[in-house]
Design goal:
The protein has two domains: 47 residues, no CATH class; 157 residues, Umud Fragment, subunit A (Ribbon). It contains three helices and twelve strands, in the order ααβββββββββαβββ. Strands 1, 2, 3, 4, 9, 10, 11 and 12 form an eight-stranded antiparallel sheet that branches. A hairpin with a 2-residue loop joins strand 5 and strand 6. The longest helix is centred in the first third of the chain and has 29 residues. It is elongated. The protein starts with a helix and ends in an 11-residue tail after the last strand.
Length: 220
């Protein structure tokens, strides 16, 4: 009986291969492509949230360095193994209750341990290396005519920020009269910074690897 049963089973398998069941074939194809789609989606989602992503600049808060529509690659991975540097261009979320989930692009100006002073349109840096304060030279990315005040649009008198605690940064847009940054939303804890620029895609004439600005007599 086992021989007859095996003979029938073999013939059934042959008929299935010669004239397959369309419903079964359709399901097999669907299941295959679903698995491929699922694995691919998980893979790219991991890359975009944990390694790098392309960000399109919206608005002109970083003008003239970046303009509306410019694109950059953002590095989410390496900042987890090191510190952010003065001058880094970073992507962050605003830590303000009720704020939208929009991403902001800003430049890190103050590092943990720094005290920032706004006076006469200049940014003065005070820390353990410069106890008497030193004017932060931002000429590598700001026009010489740029003035930076605590009150973004109206200027104002001398203002001393609170010293930045550990894992906390002071960020500003390069467009100092048109940027909503730490002068308004306050100091930024590290956990709200998602990553930093590592490559610029557009415009084509500015494409290239991000170079950390050099500040005269001030370490990054």
């Amino acid at each position: 009986m086992s021989i007859i049963y095996q003979d029938i089973a073999d013939k059934t398998e042959i008929r299935r291969k010669i004239k397959p069941n369309l419903a079964e074939e359709a399901f097999d194809y669907f299941w295959y492509f679903f698995r491929v789609f699922l694995i691919t989606s998980i893979f790219f989602s991991f890359i975009k949230t944990s390694i790098f992503d392309i960000i399109t600049v919206s608005g002109r808060s970083m003008y003239p360095t970046y303009d509306n529509g410019n694109q950059i690659y953002v590095d989410y991975l390496t900042p987890n193994f090191g510190e952010y540097r003065r001058g880094d261009v970073v992507i962050l979320k605003v830590p303000v209750e009720g704020a939208k989930d929009d991403l902001y692009i800003k430049r890190i100006i103050g590092l943990p341990g720094d005290t920032l002073i706004f006076e006469s349109g200049k940014v003065i840096l005070v820390n353990k290396d410069f106890e008497k304060g030193v004017v932060l030279d931002e000429s590598t990315y700001l026009p010489n005519t740029t003035k930076t005040y605590k009150l973004v649009n109206t200027g104002g008198d001398r203002f001393v920020e609170k010293t930045l605690p550990p894992d906390t940064y002071f960020v500003m847009g390069d467009n100092r009269t048109g940027s909503k940054d730490s002068r308004i939303i306050g100091q930024i804890q590290r956990k709200f910074i998602l990553g930093r620029e590592f490559f610029r895609i557009s415009p084509p004439d500015k494409r290239g690897v991000f170079q950390v600005p050099t500040y005269k007599n001030v370490p990054n």
